[in-house]
Amino acid sequence: MSDAAFQPRHITPSEEQLAIQLRRTRLLLVEANAGAAKTTTLALRIAQALHRGAPPESVLALTTTEPAVDALKARLAFIGVEKSTLARLRVLSYETFSREVLAIAEGGTTPGLETPEQVQPYVVRAVERALTLPDEPHPDDLDTDARPADLVEGLLQSFDTIKGRMLLQQLDAEQRLTPAIAADLGLDYLTLRTWLCYEFIRRGGHPDHPEFRYAGDGPYDLARQLLSGEVQPGDTALPHGLALICVDEMHDLNRAAFTVLKAVLASSPRAAFVGVGDRDQVIHAQTGAEAAFMAEHFKAEIGQPEVLPLTTTRRFSTQLAQHVGALARKPYAADPQAQTHIALEPCDTPRLAAELIARLAQAHHAQTAQTALRVLLRHASQSVLIEHELLRHGIAYGTAGFAPYLARPEILLVRGLHAHARQDYAGFSTPEQRARLLDAWLLFTGARVDSLELRHLDARDAQRVAVAEAAASADSTHSFVEGHALRSAQPAARRALEATLALLRSGDADAFEASFLTLLDPHRLAARVFVREADAERVAANITQLHRVALAEGGDVDAAFRLFNQLDAVRQRSRGSERVVLSSIEAAKGLEFDHVVLPHLTAGEFGAGTVENRNLLYVALTRSRQRLTLTFDPARPSRFLKDARFLI
Ligand SMILES: Nc1ncnc2c1ncn2[C@@H]1O[C@H](COP(=O)(O)OP(=O)(O)OP(=O)(O)O)[C@@H](O)[C@H]1O
Fold it and tell me: Does 278 sit in the ligand 1 pocket, CB within 6 Å?
């Protein structure tokens, strides 16, 4: 085995980085600020292990999300790890890793459910079961006037916490569950009872594996089996003989993932471990993420780690580091060579901010350097006005973390309402566009496809076939909306949609301005369909923004909708852009961009002064390299601007 240092491409490691790259210690932790080269240094450490002769398959790197997986792979490629080697390394999210281990332990894969809407029926059944169980010792504590469907959102949030923190595994197996114990766990009794019923339904009746797994169930199920001894460290299902185990974004560890990590370490006792994280980047506290897993819990349950520093951010200037340090209330050193230009742009209205962003994007495209401009948004609905402005100027852009506004189901529905009212489907010229439009109609009307000829198919396939047939022409699309989507809509949805259609048929601009949102009532329309209140709010916000944009186009309602159609055609013709991207903050975690624009740092726009919002802002600000542009309404600046000393 050679111990010469791996020589990376593109960078010269600092002494601190080299110390981490070369350290062979069994347990090594690095806690450092955003941009201090944690992911890069983890990549260097992995490359060093390969350089020393470790087979790529003997390296396991775990992290929280798929974007974080991609960020680490990108860093490995950046420093010169060959593509063929990269493909053999195991860089995985906890969820994927745990499900892979469980598939081996259980002898087969378990179906995954992706959305809250897919798990909703199971949660509703669980509530109904909890409310009707015979011999319930505390029936008064289960009293609720709410409909089970209205409880689903809150329950799923509590389930995230129960799973991530492994709350029930903290109790004795024999302990009887009482309202007092529920309160000790920070839950109400109905939630606790429903959780037990939900797990009974999810796991019951299947001898080898659960009926399904939803987000967080991979690490939770594996951790549970590890604690109960069904899977043990050293079992063949777990990898062993690993040379190196790494964890990136370690601040996102929760109890379930930590339990999995402990078993991975115990199964490969000779492996070296390196974990890196930054406690101010915790944005998933609801799933039990806690910085303590890279500090006191680690020490108590795994062992005393060696701790090495990465003291200096390599990404941005000292000036920006001072602002971010003030926000996070911690020291923040930066590379004195790095230059980041910070521009504070007061914009009295969102429209002015959108115009500014369009100008910045245009100038950005005019540069020859292939640099990236990323507009980071707190809410997807904030993109409507900005995208509209970009499209009007023919400026190519992409999106990350959300769909382009003209393709969002609720916007398709509104455009489809207008197309239906006017019997003009010019904006939906291909069968694919009409199929997406019909999917939106079915989503918001709650109408089901119920055709004798399609009875042999399951509900989803039947809908796909029926929609594809109906989308073949504009006429058949119109008939499907009239004869099916509207006719079988739930009565309240149908009333709202028909009233909106009548309004759009009238072409009356004043009525459109005054009554469109009241008649359609997008929040209620969405609340009937989506489980999460946040989703209903998002739908309502998107439609409200579209309405505003339509009004700003002048008095002619039909002309505004024709413009949406034209802009959608522009969007589809342009191949999108990787150089100018509008994105959620979550989708930018772990990444960096030459120019970051953070619009709407205005009171009430970014969110209240909670730790989670502050950490989101911290993540957003620290993505920038050479330029950072912040916009805000000077009459109502966000308090975060003061906390970060951008404003006095
Ligand atoms: N030795 C080096 N010389 C110059 N630049 C470096 C060096 N090491 C890392 N960098 C650069 O520093 C920047 C930040 O690195 P990296 O993304 O690894 O930081 P991080 O701590 O993981 O950030 P975050 O916490 O935001 O995920 C990158 O642009 C990277 O290329």
Answer: yes
pLDDT at 143: 75
Give the type of residue at 601.
Answer: L
* For ligand 1, atom 11: residue with the closest CA: 314
Pairwise CA distance, residues 61 & 46, whole Å: 9
| Contact by Cβ (8 Å): 618, 324 | yes
Please determine, for the modelled complex, whether the ipTM score is greater than 0.85: yes
> Which runs of consecutive H residues, i.e. helices, occur in 334-376?
350-366
Nearest residue to 472 (alpha-carbon basis) of 432, 441, 436: 432
98-119: b (≥16 Cβ within 10 Å) or e: bbbbbeebbeeebeebeebeeb
pLDDT of residue 13: 97
- Residue minimizing CA distance to atom 3 of ligand 1: 11
Supply angle C-alpha 443, 444, 446, rounded to 5.
Answer: 70
pLDDT tens string 290-324: 999 999 999 999 999 999 999 999 999 999 999 99
- How far is Cα of residue 293 from the mean position of the Cα atoms in its chain? 22
Kindly give the number of the ligand 1 atom that is closest to the alpha carbon of 17.
1
Query: Is the C-beta atom of 217 inside 6 A of ligand 1?
Result: no
Which tens digit of pLDDT belongs to each residue from 247-296?
999 999 999 999 999 999 999 999 999 999 999 998 888 899 999 999 99
The pLDDT confidence band at residue 69, using thresholds 50, 70 and 90, is very high
Cβ–ligand 1 distance for 624 under 6 Å, the answer: no
Binding residues: 32-39
Segment 619-639 mean pLDDT: 97
Task: Give the 3-state secondary structure of 185-203.
Answer: CCCCHHHHHHHHHHHHHHH
The atom of ligand 1 lying closest to the CA of 314 is: 12
Residue 39 CB–ligand 1 contact under 6 Å? yes
- Between the alpha carbon of residue 546 and those of residues 6, 495, 605, the distances in Å are 53, 21, 17
Binding residue positions for ATP: 32-39
The rounded distance, in Å, linking the Cα atoms of 500 and 543 is 13
Take atom 30 of ligand 1 and give the residue whose Cα is closest: 37
Is residue 454's pLDDT more than 70?
no
What's the rounded mean pLDDT across residues 571-580? 83
| Residue in 215, 69, 97 with CA at minimum distance from that of residue 590 | 69
d(CA 580, CA 364): 8
Tell me if 21 CB under 6 Å of ligand 1.
Answer: no
Q: State if pTM tops 0.95.
A: no
- Going by alpha carbons, the residue nearest to atom 1 of ligand 1 is 13
Contact in structure between 477 and 415 (CB atoms under 8 Å): no
Amino acid at 163: K
**Residue nearest atom 8 in ligand 1 by C-alpha distance:** 37
Q: What is the pLDDT of residues 322-357, one digit of tens each?
A: 999 999 999 999 999 999 999 999 999 999 999 999
- pLDDT at site 459: 65
Tokens of 424: 């003009």
Do the Cβ atoms of 50 and 59 come closer than 8 Å? yes
The pLDDT mean for the chain works out to: 93
Contact 49, 81 (CB under 8 A): no
Which residue from 14, 17, 312, 315 has its CB within 8 A of the most atoms of ligand 1, so it is best to mutate?
A: 315
Lowest mean pLDDT across 151-160, 236-245, 411-420: 151-160
| Ligand 1: centre distance to CA 293 (Å) | 23
